[in-house]
Amino acid sequence: MELQKKFLIFVPSAQLIFLLGFLIPTLCINQSKLRCRESERAALLEFKEGLRDPHSLLSSWEGSECCNWRGIICDNETQHVVSLDLGYRHLFDGPSTSWRLSGEITPLLSLKHLNYLDLSFNDFRGIDIPEFIGSIQGLSYLNLSNAGFGGRIPSQIGNLSRLQYLDLNSFYSWYTLYADDLQWLSHLSSLRYLDMNSVNLANADDWFYAINMLPVLSVLYFPNCQLKEFTTPLAVPNLTSLASLDLSNNQFVSMLPNWLFNMSKLECINLQFNQIRGSIPDAFANMTSLEVIQLRKNELLGGIPQSIGKLCNLRILDLSSNNITDDVSILATISSECAGGTLEILNLRGNNLVGNLSDWLAHFKVLTYLDLGSNLLQGSIPASIGNISTLRSLFLSQNTLNGTLPETMGQLSRLNLFDVSHNSLSGIISQVHFQNLSKLEHLSLGSNSFVFNMSSDWEPPFRLRLIGLRRCRIGPKFPPWLKKQRDYNILDLSYAEINDTAPDWIWNYDQHIFLLDISHNQIAGEVPGRLKYASMSIIDLSFNQFEGPLPGLPASIEYIDFTGNAFSGTIFPLFAQPMLIFSHLIITDNIINGTIPDSICNYLDMFVIDLSSNLLSGELPECWADLGDLSGLNLANNKLTGKIPSSLGTLSWLQALHLNNNSFHGELPTALKSCTMLITFDVGDNKLSGEIPTWIGESLLYLRILRLRSNMFNGNIPAQLSLLTSLQILDLAGNKLSGNIPSSLGNISAMAQTHKPEARMMEVLQGAVQSSLHNYGPSGYSDTLVLVTKGRKMEYTKNLQYVASIDLSENILSGNIPHQLANLYGLQNLNLSGNKLTGKMPENIGQLELLESLDFSRNNLSGSIPSSISLLTSLSLLNLSYNNLSGRIPTGHQLQTLNDPSMYIGNSALCGPPLEECEQNETHSATLPIKDDEESKMLEFYISMILGFVAGFWVVWGILLSIDSVRYAYFEFTDSLLERLSSAFR
C-alpha cells in the first residue's frame, strides 16, 4: 500500500527548469514597489469573502496594496496579479487539516493576467471545480490537486490553450473527481505536465486518443484511474516528448502495448499493480533513454530479457510479484553489460527465480537496493557479497538458501536493512559479521538455524530499530548486547531457546514499540504490574513460564497473547485503563480465575476474545451486543455456568464460537440463528438440552464445524443439517438422539470433496493482524478443535481445514445405516458406535477411499461384512465389535494389516483371520453380493411361482394317468376341439 501512495515521481531536468521559470522572475521582485490594480484587489476581496478561513491564513489581505498579500504575486512592470498561490502546503505547514481553506469560490474573471493558480491541498468539501477557470485565458499553471473538489471535471478547462501544467491529483481527497470523456484535453496543445491521479476515468474510453493530441507532453500521471484497456492508436503515437509515464494501479488486462516502445524519449515507465500479461519484450532495449522500469504486481511470465542490460541509463528495475521463471544467473549477463554500472535499485521479489547466487553480484557497481526475496534460490550466499560497497538494503528472505552467513557481510558499511529470514541457513554468528555495520537499523535473521556466539563485553556498532531473531539460538541466557539496543520498535526473540528469567531492561523500555515477541521459550518470572513502554501495539509472551497477576498495559495495545503460562488472579488488571483499544485478547491455558466482567464489553474494537482453558466461573455477561466487530469468541474449558446469553445472537460478524467443556444448561437460544457468518459452532461437553434446532441448518449456511457432543440433546437429527453444504465436521456424539440417521446427510458436498480446499478455515480471522514488515507480527487467530478419531482425542489447528468427520456415536439411533453416506467420498472419520442400528452394513462402504477410522461397534447390525471394505486402503482403525455380523471376514489390501481380533469380538458367527478359520462347508457369503430386503422378497415370489407351477402340473397329469374314464373323456374333448378348428379354417 505504501508503494501505491508514494509513487516514484521523476521529473526530468527540462521540466524542473520549466517549473522554476514560474518562480524565479517573481521571487526577484521587490514587492513593496508594486501598486495593486483596484479592480483586481476588489476581485480578491470578494474571493476571500466566499472562503472559510477559521485560522486567518489570509489575515494579510487588508489595505490597498494587494501585491503584498500572502499568496499574491504581481508583475513587476504591469502591476497586474499574475500568481495566486493558496496551496495549503505553501501557506502553512500546520498540524491539522482543520487549518485548510474551504467554502465557495467566487469568479476571478477580473484577474485577466493570471497565469499561475494553486488551490491544492485545501478542503472544498466536494464542490465542483468552478467552470470560470476555463475563462482565465492566460493560465499556464493550474494546480487543484487534493483540494477536496468532486464531481465532473468541467470541459471548459480545455479552453486554456496556454496551459502547460495541470494537476488534478485526487489521491488524498475524500471526494471523487471523474470524467466521462477527455476530448477537452486534446485542445491543450501546450500542455507539458498532466497529473490526474485517482480521477475516475472508467468511462473515458477516449483517454489515449486525447493524450495522443498533446505533442509536447512530457509528464503523464494516470494512476488509480480505473482504466480498463490500452487503446490501440490508429496512427503512430504523437507522444514523442513523453519522458515520464505512470499508469499504475489500473485495471489493464492485456499484454504490453506496441505503441509504448515507440516513445524513444521515455525515461520513466510505471505500470505496476495491473494485470499485464505475457512475456517481457526485447523491445525495451530500443528505449535507450529509460532510467526507471516499474512493472511490479502484474502477471508477466517467462524470462528476463538479456537486452535489458544494454539500457545504459537504467537506474531502477522493479519486476517483483510476477510469474517470471528464469535462472538467477541472467543477472550475470545484465551486470556485465552497461546496466551493471548504472542500476541502483533491483527488485525481483516474489517470482520463480531458480539457481545459485554467485560472484557476479559484485559486478553491480552502484547497487543500493537488492531484493531477491520470495523466490526459489538455493545454495550459499557468496562471500563476494561484501564487495557491493554501495549496498544499503539487501533482501534474500523466503528462499531455500543454505550454508553459513559469510563474514564479509561485515564489510557492508552502508548497509541499513538486512533480511535473510525464512531460509535454511545455519552456522555461527559472531561479532565479525557486524564489525563495520554502523548504519544497520533492520536486522532480520529469523527462521534459520543460526547460533549466536558473541562475547559478553561486545559493543554493537549499530542501533537497531528492528531485531528479528526468530528461531535463532541466542539462549540459554538473554544476550548482554541486546540490553544496549534502545531504539528498536520490533523485537522478535521467539523460539530462541532462552531459559532464563526475564531481565528488568526488557520491561523498563520507555520507547514506542510496535511488536514484542518473546514467545515459545522457557522464560520465567513475573511481569511488572505496569509496563513502561511509551506505546505498544503487539505483545506475545505465549508458551513461557510467566506467573503472577496479569500486567497493566499501555493504552495503545492492540494484540495480546499470553497463552500457555501460569498467570493467575483475575482478568481485571487488563481492564484497568478505560482507553484500551486492543482487538485481540488471547490468554488461553493459564490459571486465571474469577468471573468475566461486564467491562469487557467497553472495548468496542474487540475482534477476538480467547480466554479458554482457565478457571473462569460464573455466568456470562449480557452485554455482547456492544461488541459489534467481534469475530472470534473462545471460552472453552472453564467452569462457566448458567444459560447461553441471547445477546450473543447480536454478533452478526461472529465466525468462531467455542463454549465447550463448561456447565451451560438449557436450550440453545433461538437468537443465535442471527449469527449467519458462523464457521465454527462448538458447544460440546455442557449440559444443554432440548432438540437440535432446525435453524442451525436453515440459517448458519457457512458452518464448517458443528460440535454438539456430550450434552443432553434429544429427538431426531434434523434433516435440515444437510443444507449445510460447507460442513466438514459433524459431531453429535454422546447425546440422547433417537430415530433414523437422515439419508440426506449424504448430500453434504464439502464432505464429498476428495481434495480439501486450500483456504484456511477462517481466512479473515487468521489474517486479521498485519505488521509493518511481512515477516513479523502474529497472523491473527487460528481456530483449534479437539476431535475423537481413531479411538483417541486429537487436537487440530493448522490442518483443521483438511479434516472431514461424522461422529454420531453414543446415542439411541435406530434403523439402517443409509447407503447414501458412502457418497461422502472425502470422509476420513465415521463413527456410529453405541447406538441401536440394525440391518446390514452398506455394500458400497468401499467408496469412502479416504476413510481412516470406521467404528460401527455396539449396534445390532447383521449379515456379512461387505467385500468392498477391503478397498479402504487408508484405514488404520476398524471396529465392528458387538454386533450380529456373520460369515467370512473379507481379506486383502489394508485389511491384512488390521489383525487385532478385538475389532470383531462379539460377533459369534464371524470367522476367518484374525479370528478362527471358517469350516470347510462354511458359506463364503462375504464375497457375494448382498441382497437387500426388496431383492429378497422378489426371490421368494419367483420360488413360490415355480413351486406352484410344478404342483399344478403333477396334479393334472396324475389324475389323467390314474383314472381311465377321465383320461378317455379328456382326449375325446381334445379331438373334437381340433376337428372344429380345422373346419373353421378351410
Automatic annotation (TrEMBL):
SUPFAM superfamilies recorded: L domain-like (SSF52058)
Chief location: membrane
Residues annotated as transmembrane: 7-27, 941-963
GO-annotated cellular components: plasma membrane
Localization in the cell: Cell membrane
Membrane topology according to the record: Single-pass type I membrane protein
One Pfam family recorded for the sequence: LRR_1
Keyword Cell membrane: yes
InterPro entries on file: Leu-rich_rpt (IPR001611), Leu-rich_rpt_typical-subtyp (IPR003591), LRR_dom_sf (IPR032675), LRR_N_plant-typ (IPR013210), RLP23-like (IPR046956)
Domain called Leucine-rich repeat-containing N-terminal plant-type: residue spans: 39-75
Keyword terms of this UniProt record: Cell membrane, Glycoprotein, Leucine-rich repeat, Membrane, Repeat, Signal, Transmembrane, Transmembrane helix
Top-level taxonomic group: Eukaryota
UniProt keyword tRNA processing, yes or no: no
Family as reported in the entry's similarity comment: Belongs to the RLP family.
Descriptive protein name: Receptor-like protein EIX2
UniProt gene name: LOC120275587
